Fold this sequence. Notes:
This protein is α/β, with parallel strands linked by helices. It has helices at about 15-30, 80-85, 125-130, and strands at about 10, 40-45, 50-60, 65-70, 75, 90-95, 100-105, 110, 120. It contains three helices and nine strands.
Amino acid sequence: MFSIPGLKVVSLTDAAARRIREIMAQSARDNPDAPALGLRVGVKKGGCAGMEYTFEVAHATGKGDEVVTEKDATVIVDAKAVLFLLGTELDFKTDRFSSTFVFNNPNQVSACGCGESVEIKPRSETALAAQ
């Protein structure tokens, strides 16, 4: 588990925690024989800005994954994404046209115009030691 005193990999707003609990409840109804552990979040290469955030219902954890349980909701941060997401607040917003998770990520340096991809710089060990 990755740990720096006073710094969480991911924190959840009330709205994000509520939505994750809803997703887990729906997953349990749809797949009663395959209980989900939480919502897996990560990053992958893609889009015009270079990276995209990913989501999936997780049924297992992998080596090096970070498990964050907050407000009765569990997020599993993919091991390859920890340094890209360190210090991120996950929120959930609904407006007239969409409902979506929003990453308030201090490591994000830019985003494409359509909002589908982002540029993220991983935290360096030097920056982590300074905190």
